[in-house]
Write a structure and sequence with these properties.
Number of strands: 4
Number of helices: 4
Largest sheet: 2 strands, antiparallel
Order of helices and strands: HEHEEHEH
Distance between the termini: 28 Å
Number of domains: 1
Length: 105
């Protein structure tokens, strides 16, 4: 799915990994991450918004960029993911580790 063309509202209602629509009463999971210092400037213009993040594999993740005064940022997170299941959260973790450490099994 190409998430680049979706509205902010549509992005906010989807799983970061599988892009399924999250029902309003559905349990969801959140996790945060850090980006390299040189990438933080690019994110500043997107604070408080959802955006696609393309992995080298071509897969797009949906990320939320916390505002400077948010609890997520206070906890040290530059980006935040919402997922529909622990399995999707685990897939994000595996994929990001593979991006950062491609030679580590």
């Amino acid at each position: 799915m190409n998430v680049s063309n979706l509205s902010q509202l549509a992005l906010s209602k989807r799983c970061s990994w599988c892009h399924r629509i999250l029902a309003g009463d559905q349990e969801c999971f959140g996790s945060g991450g850090k980006v390299r210092p040189e990438a933080r400037a690019e994110l500043a213009a997107l604070e408080g918004r959802f955006a696609p993040m393309r992995l080298s594999s071509g897969r797009e993740l949906i990320i939320m960029i916390p505002t400077a005064d948010s609890e997520a940022r206070a906890a040290g997170h530059d980006i935040f993911f919402q997922t529909c299941s622990r399995e999707c959260a685990d897939e994000i973790t595996r994929s990001l580790r593979a991006e950062i450490f491609p030679d580590v099994p």
